[in-house]
Write a structure and sequence with these properties.
Number of strands: 17
Structural class: alpha+beta
Helix content: 25-40%
Low-confidence stretches: 406-411
Number of helices: 12
Order of helices and strands: EHEEHHEEHEEHEEEEHHEEHEEHEEHHH
Bound molecules: flavin-adenine dinucleotide
Strand order of the largest sheet: 6-2-1-7-17-16
Mean pLDDT: 88
Length: about 450
Amino acid sequence: MRARPTDPKPIHVVGGGLSGSEAAWQIARRGVPVVLHEMRPDRSTAVHKSGQFAELVCSNSFRSDDAEGSAIGLLHAEMRRLGSLVMCAADTHKLPAGGALAVDREGFAAAITAAIEHEPLIEIRREEIFEPPSDWDSVIVATGPLTSPALADAIRALTGETALAFFDAIAPIVHRDSIDFGITWFQSRYDKAGPAGSGADYINCPLTRAQYEAFVDALLTGEKIGFHDFEATPYFDGCLPIEVMAERGRETLRHGPMKPFGLTDPHRPAAKPYAVVQLRQDNKLGTLFNMVGFQTKLKHGEQVRIFRTIPGLAKAEFARLGGLHRNTFLNSPKLLDDTLRLKAMPRLRFAGQITGCEGYVESAAIGLLAGRFAAAERLGERPLLPPPSTAHGALIGHITGGHIETIESGPRSFQPMNINFGLFPPLGGGTARGAKKQALCARALANLDAWIGAALPHAAE
Ligand SMILES: Cc1cc2nc3c(=O)[nH]c(=O)nc-3n(C[C@H](O)[C@H](O)[C@H](O)COP(=O)(O)OP(=O)(O)OC[C@H]3O[C@@H](n4cnc5c(N)ncnc54)[C@H](O)[C@@H]3O)c2cc1C
């Protein structure tokens, strides 16, 4: 579709990464002109190496492509149905990788760059944007986790936040239905209810002395990830990785995040646990729980191995593993409206990892939605949200509203997340555990198709 007779004003997209490229493409597909501003190659980030659009900065994997049993595979399938440029280029340049979708990174980025360069409705400007000028009435900021410092400062000033670039101290998040409630129990320390609690808000995993000692040994010897040069010194008080706490003394964790006080194990009331790992509800649906105080630089495989030794977590499924790395992202549930516009300045919309999603595919998916929302607005239509039961709906729900604010340490509790089934509204009863993922995927695709049919008449163009 080409520009309509009314000749709409262009939408400005800042950042030609995974999300900005997809956003620009989606806007053009609706017949609306776009100006895409990308600072590379003249000015680069600490990790990008080329001037190509949608450069993959690290792994070349888009993770599982199983649209019937994995949340990320479902997101792939939905994006294909929505005419995603990123998925089209990934499919064209895929490499053998078992059940995963891995891509030839050079071919992938070259295909996206060529598609954008050949799209007449997209004008490319190779320049750094320090602050979106006031006469740009519709802007998508898609500048990623390494947004240039000048723009990050401008955004921080607009949002009134004290910080925008963080060392994320990420604690692992576990699917509630993978926790063994024959071993764990719900209780808040000293049964305190607090402002929004019941007195039984935490899931508690009890450790004997021998289990605690073995756990500390595993932390001390487990393989850790180093920091990138650009990350400098990240630790701040109250947010030390658990393995660093363990290095400070064998009892440190027992007097910190693993303290056993104020808790009684109903399964064995006479035996006081030597240490306790607590998990706290992480999303409104109550399907995800985070391991309190368990930020870590252990390698992901090591986290799974070591954390599954914790009583009650032997079969834990992780929605997100822990980490500590530099990132730039907004406190989106507070700052953005449900179509990703900055509440304080609605002409600015955000997309990609800066909104609080994590991963190449998720960043592109949020770019896809931001592009469609901005184009609809420009065409005088009301942007319609994807159903919460779809992967797109679940992801944007996490960004704009699904998270529960629980700040106890560190700058904020909202953290970027990959798509995972814990973000989807649960199914009604009656679905066998083994069939749950398939049922969630089938429901998502059926609802997405209905949404495309009803709300997005141009999706197939
Ligand atoms: C070191 C590192 C490794 C990662 N590894 C992986 C991984 O292996 N797998 C994975 O799924 N995810 C990974 N991620 C997370 C994330 O998926 C990627 O960062 C992803 O590229 C985010 O997409 P985006 O579009 O939000 O940002 P980006 O793809 O980074 O795009 C942002 C673009 O904005 C441009 N830009 C920035 N500031 C300005 C400005 N002021 N004016 C104009 N242009 C500007 C940048 O040059 C860049 O092209 C990693 C992140 C980092 C930091």
